[in-house]
Amino acid sequence: MTTITTTTTITGTNNPFTLGAGDTISISTNIGGNANEAIYTDYSATNATTVGGPTIVIDGVVLDTAPLSNKDEYAIQSRSTADASIINYGVIMSTNMVAIGINNGTVVNGIGSKISGTGGIVIGYGSLQSTVINDGLISGSTLAAISVLATGANRGFVDNFSAGTIIGGASGGAANESGIVLRSGTVLNAGTISQGGAAGYSVDFNSAIGDDTLILDPGQELKGLATASGTGNYIELSGTGLGTLTNPGNYHGFTLVSVAKGSDWQIGTAGEAVSVPGVGTFDVGGTLDVLGSITGTDFNMTGPGVVDFSAPLSSTADTNNLGRITNFGAGDSFVVGPTVLVTQSGDGIVTNYNTATGVYTILDTSQIGNPDDEVQITVSGTNSPNNLSADNFSLTTGPGGITVSEVPCFGAGTEILTPDGMIAVENLAEGDEVLSARTGEPRKIIWAGARRVDVARHANPEKVMPVRVRAGALAPGLPERDLIVSPDHALLLDGHLVEAKTLVNGATILWDKTRRTVTYHHIELDEHDVVLAEGIPAETYLESGNRTMFEGTAMQLHPDFATVRDDRGCAPLLLEGPALMAIRQNLLERALRLGFELTGETDLTIQAGGRVIAPSGSLGNNLWFALPAGCATVTLLSATGVPAETGADPSDRRVLGAAIAGLTITDENGRRTIDLDAPEHTGFHDAEPGHRWTTGAATLTLPAYTGQAILDVTLTGQAVRWVGPAASRAA
Which of 236, 248, 263, 447 could bond 215 through an S-S bridge, CB–CB 3.0 to 4.6 Å? Predict the structure, then answer.
């Protein structure tokens, strides 16, 4: 272990510089100038503003207790015009100075590491975009924990991981008591960002430039107001898992809140008004559960999205308007919770849609006379001014409340069992008879519909992409031939209706992505029932106001063939739980008996310089790739798997490639770590403990180099996926 008591100056001969684990730099004497700093540099290898800056790695302890002789002193300082990289796995502390000061570059504070001083980090007016990544503690005693002063195109980016904590100063006014102060840029928070004193903010975008972004992940916490100046600022509710925003009134200066696609968030508190000051619109691409009362708000469906209104109504209001929903289309729905209208059976519910005003009314006739007997929602569709009619709305009731959304179908050529034998569904017409799969008795068709769909041009292709059930997928001879159905068409299995999309396993039941167009057909009986389609019991049409999806009516532009279920169904719908998992497990075991195999074998390659490159070597979980000279980006390529298609649980439908635990590059500049979570990378899922999954094609932005280089990729595994019978035999 070594203790250094004088300033360490970084030059061309000792860059990159590493302070090893157990080593210490301790500065306590007031020498003045740069000599009061623990580490100092203005080094730039190329005298340029883009590459060649210093790299400082701290595995030990930097302790600077020297008095401050001028405001431009920092415990670690880089005055270089080039990008500085400071990576801390240890402790950087100063009692009288800001801990780190750089013109521009990247500061990484690893998990469990600490950066603290009068302020934590100051990034000056350099000409480059700067980044701070925190998974430890960054704090200031009398100044903000992080200050990013760059403006314009050189916006700052702060990514606070789930284990990260950022705390501002305890006194000195708003700017000094804030957790993060940015002139402009983006803050992504999955951890804790806190004001240090009552006058401060958790996050303060403090210039009039605007267009700033605050991204929040589930589990995050902001202690203190988050503020933004200028215009065009927005909040994005993102990430996986359930997120909760209990204090929406603490966000000022933002004009839009966006719920990211696939995200699930609750906002507000039961019994209290929900309001984000200045925000009149929520973009909803995932699920938004509004726990409190809300008025004067637009919900713009960027879909497929769900808005769930959970707050009890005001008992004094004559009309309870829940807000306005715009861009309502395929895959979207809204829910009026059981505390809003009490009826759950559906018997007392009457609805009306006024096409002139766009007002959709739900009346609970069992509560006539009660001020809370009615709610109204103003709904408009995807085309201006409106392309909706009453037929676009389908309603179902249950313990979760009243769900309003948009009818599943057979693909052309599907053969249906009739008293005269098997007949193709497109040849059946009103007045013909089919056999009930439940009773074996003839049932008369009272309506038949058809619709040709261009899957490739549909606004939401996943809503209409056909599902192919391969011959023999359920049992020998079931189905007799491949069965093609729409994704929401339900099959009767073990006494339950199960939608085809819920059964997809990627082997014997799969999305048919080969068909650009598909023609769907449906038949309706006097009651909802199941018929034998290619030998499998499959449901008939259930009237729920969706005939506009079919030809011969005023057709909806982008059809969605989902049926809204209610108590008229011939069997209960199974969406989750042990019974569904048992059905799916049987299908997986059947696939294995048919010769399909599961593999997690690694097949990672990279694409760089216009060619695909195989690993040049490997050791354990590490693969090495020889890179051509001067590559700016590389793409990691691998086979993919979907957890919901290889296991009994259907909930995780992410397309996963390789699980990347670490990345380094070795070149003329030495060995450097590539930040796996850098925003420049594309094709990654959100980080998980110990790794980050690719989507099968992930592009990395590399640090600059001129000669050849070696890319070292550390894996924790690759997605489990199916190998077909033919491929298995060939192997």
Answer: 236
